[in-house]
Specification:
The complex is a heterodimer. Chain A is mainly alpha-helical. Helices cover 73% and strands 2% of the residues of chain A. Chain A has a single domain (3-310), classed as Formate dehydrogenase/DMSO reductase domain (Formate dehydrogenase/DMSO reductase fold), CATH 1.20.1630.10. In chain A, helix 1 packs antiparallel against helix 5 (138-164) and helix 2 crosses helix 7. Chain A is flat and about 55 Å long. Chain B has one domain (5-214): Alpha-Beta Plaits (2-Layer Sandwich), CATH 3.30.70. Chain B contains seven helices and ten strands. In chain B, strands 8-1-10-9 form a four-stranded mixed beta sheet. Chain B has a two-stranded antiparallel sheet with strand order 2-3. A two-stranded antiparallel ribbon of chain B has the order 4-5. The termini of chain B are far apart. Classes of the chains: A mainly alpha, B alpha+beta. Chains A and B meet through helix 1, helix 4, helix 5, helix 7 and helix 8 of A and helix 2, strand 4, helix 3, strand 6 and helix 7 of B.
Chain lengths: 311, 258
């Protein structure tokens, strides 16, 4: 690929913010659902805060995406148009005015965002009502949780698949971006819950410790996916792709990539966790670890997209 | 579907007059733009929302850096048989016509700009005035009235030819043979083979050297070929993360509970 001829979508940093918040929302929802499944009473705080975060973090999504459009009034065209065209792509399904394009991650992602938002709203409503003294609708929450978990994973991962399906030299031969974004969603979702719980100081130490154990595990997956992504790009073999990769790891994005995404975002929090800080030390240390993970989670998405758009 | 229409651009006949570029601007009523100094007669450096046709100028140099040959190539949207922009489009605004060409329905496009980054040739451009993506349509209004695209009509040397794809492919084959006979050993077709990359290009080219000489990708790839693999890897990652959560939250509580 000759990058000189290619063009960039020039998505603003606002889109990175949506990818970041969508990842947190998806990750927090999945954590809350699994915690709810394994210990409704024991993980009550994690479940409640997780579902609240999922709902609150997904709200800005549709707003950001709509504002970014060239014609914001046509936001619904992502899902439906009054008079659809006939041949609009591989395996495209049109039902009445609605269309689903499985090979357009942006279209599939818009549907996932819609479905996830509904689940996140219902789950947040359920934990809210329970907290206010109402009866918990266990089965209802379970069903919403399972459906929402699917779409939560989807919401966290699809931006990676989306940028991976562009002609940008950094992405055209890349793999593992969806897996990476999913892992970032899990780690930042866990960090967001841990941050709120530590600040409120309202949860059981044991539950928080288990949450941090999971978050640390997600960081390991994140590190592995990041390494595999770099590996998939570096073995692609074209000069244009090599130039694009150099931008990311040694060029202008090298410092934020290594320092922000790898050291601050993964290695330091992992070292602090393995050192026992999140189990034994004061809640302030858990706050610190969570903030580092959140900063790193934003930086890793930001630098990859920025480097991909620049070269 | 009607027979596929195509455009055959023979760079060996191009004289760099840019009549095609002007005809395109006039017929499609594209607004004027500030000229750019690109180092050659080429204007602009890239396709823009107001330049759907672009004559590219290249200076081929020898080992000593001396100019060996000038190359001129009238570039255009390739209307790929497997089109990255069309597959990327989330709204269905980008569609394939009955002639096999790829168009952007301006009444549907909402300006998400995903197609801009999905085109392997950097063709699709975002128009800030209309808020939509635009590109060459093969003069959709003209071809539906039997006129042929404005650029091909204006070309004084028949460097740009328009017609049915299967007919033109035959013409192109003969032309390559003829050029090779006359000593142009590197003469080759780009995108003419319907079994080739991207299922063949409906705007294909006769080049006098390697595609890289003209800034074209050697093997253009459909970006969406990554979607299935990346999705499967994401599912794998979801299973690992989900399993991790099950292990982390499983087991008896009580220890350290406050």
């Amino acid at each position: 690929m000759e990058p000189g001829l290619l063009k960039s979508a020039d998505w603003p940093v606002l889109i990175d913010l949506y990818f970041f918040l969508g990842g947190i929302a998806g990750g927090a929802f999945v954590i809350a659902t699994i915690a709810n499944l394994l210990g409704h009473e024991r993980y009550r705080d994690i479940v409640r805060v997780g579902y609240y975060i999922a709902f609150l973090a997904v709200i800005p999504g549709p707003i950001i995406l709509t504002v970014d459009l060239g014609l914001p009034t046509r936001f619904l065209h992502m899902l439906m148009v009054a008079k659809p065209s006939l041949e609009i792509g591989r395996d495209a399904v049109t039902v009445g005015p609605f269309h689903l394009k499985p090979f357009s991650p942006m279209n599939a992602g818009a549907w996932a965002l819609l479905a996830f938002s509904a689940c996140a709203f219902l789950a947040a409503l359920d934990v809210f009502l329970e907290h206010r003294g109402g009866r918990s609708m266990r089965t209802f929450r379970g069903v919403v949780g399972v459906i929402g978990t699917f779409f939560g994973f989807f919401l966290a991962a699809y931006p990676g698949v989306l940028i991976g399906a562009t002609a940008r030299p950094l992405f055209v031969s890349a793999h593992w971006l969806g897996a990476l974004f999913l892992a970032v969603g899990a780690s930042t979702g866990g960090a967001a819950i841990a941050l709120i719980l530590s600040v409120l100081g309202a949860t059981r130490r044991e539950a928080l410790s288990r949450l941090m154990r999971f978050t640390a595990f997600a960081l390991v997956v994140q590190l592995a996916a990041l390494a595999l992504f770099i590996l998939s790009v570096s073995t692609a073999g074209s000069a244009g792709i090599a130039r694009a990769l150099a931008q990311l790891i040694t060029g202008p994005y090298g410092l934020p990539f290594w320092l922000g995404a790898v050291v601050v975002g993964i290695l330091v929090p992992l070292a602090l966790h393995l050192g026992g800080v999140t189990r034994k030390a004061a809640p302030a240390m858990t706050v610190l670890v969570s903030v580092l993970i959140l900063v790193g989670g934003f930086v890793v998405k930001y630098v990859i997209i920025a480097a991909g758009q620049a070269t | 579907m009607a027979r596929t229409l195509a455009m055959f651009t023979d760079v060996s006949l191009c004289i760099g007059c840019r009549a095609c570029q002007v005809a395109c601007k006039q017929w499609n009523q594209l607004a004027p733009e500030e000229p750019e100094w690109t180092g050659t007669y080429q204007n602009h450096a890239h396709f823009t929302d107001k330049s759907y046709r672009l004559v590219r100028f290249f200076e081929e140099t020898d080992d000593k850096g001396q100019i060996k040959q000038w190359h001129m190539m009238s570039d255009v949207c390739k209307h790929c048989a497997q089109a990255g922009c069309l597959e990327a489009c989330p709204t269905g605004a980008i569609y394939r016509t009955e002639f096999g060409t790829v168009n952007i329905n301006q009444d549907i496009c909402n300006g998400c700009r995903y197609c801009v980054s999905a085109c392997p040739f950097g063709v699709v451009s975002f128009n800030r005035d209309t808020g939509t993506a635009t590109k060459c349509t093969f003069c959709n209004d003209r071809i539906h009235n039997g006129l042929g695209p404005a650029c091909a009509k204006a070309c004084p040397t028949q460097s740009i030819r328009f017609g049915f794809r299967d007919d033109l492919a035959g013409v192109a084959e003969k032309r390559v043979e003829e050029l090779r006979k006359h000593g142009y050993k590197d003469a080759q077709l780009y995108g003419a083979d319907p079994k080739g990359d991207l299922g063949g290009l409906n705007a294909f080219f006769l080049l006098l050297g390697k595609p890289a000489l003209y800034g074209l990708p050697e093997k253009p790839k459909l970006p969406q070929r990554n979607v299935l693999v990346d999705s499967l890897l994401s599912i794998g990652s979801a299973l690992v993360v989900g399993l991790g959560a099950l292990v982390a939250f499983r087991g008896r509580g009580g220890r350290g509970d406050a």
